[in-house]
Amino acid sequence: LLTNLRQYNLTVEEAARLGDEFAEAALIARSEAGDLSEGFASVASTGRVAGLSTSQLLGMLVELDNKGLDPAQEGARGLRTVLATLADPSEKATGVLEDLGIALEDKVTG
Q1: How many angstroms separate the first and last alpha carbons of the chain?
Q2: Helices (H), ranges, 1-110
Q3: Which of 17, 27, 76, 80 has its CA at 20 to 30 Å from residue 70's CA atom?
Q4: Do the beta carbons of residue 67 and residue 79 sit within 8 Å?
Q5: What DSSP state is assigned to residue 106?
Q6: The dihedral formed by the CA atoms of 17, 22, 28 and 31, expressed in degrees to the nearest 10
Q7: pLDDT band for position 105 (50/70/90)?
Q8: Cα–Cα distance measured from residue 102 to residue 98, given in angstroms and rounded to the nearest whole number
Q9: Residue 55's closest CA among 73, 32, 28, 31?
Q10: Which DSSP string corresponds to 77-102?
């Protein structure tokens, strides 16, 4: 949990909230909280830069887990890859997304 707090630049005072989020996620996931924590650790820095809250990131890992992708392995790797790709898409990818009616916005603030 301490590693997860640090990755999101959270304070120790926020540990209870993050712990509650992990407990809730573990109740609806196929895997255990430890697997979710490991997956979270793998993708947290990318998720934070993408502007995702801890609960949003955990929700995505739970959803991937419930679809059969281990949140500590392929689920986290896949999510990290998608988030990194969307953070800096190619012109072709941007064009395809726009054709689908999806506009990417720059969420990174200085």
Answers
A1: 27
A2: 2-7, 15-28, 33-49, 54-66, 74-87, 91-99
A3: 17
A4: no
A5: -
A6: 180
A7: low
A8: 5
A9: 28
A10: HHHHHHHHHHHS--HHHHHHHHHTT-
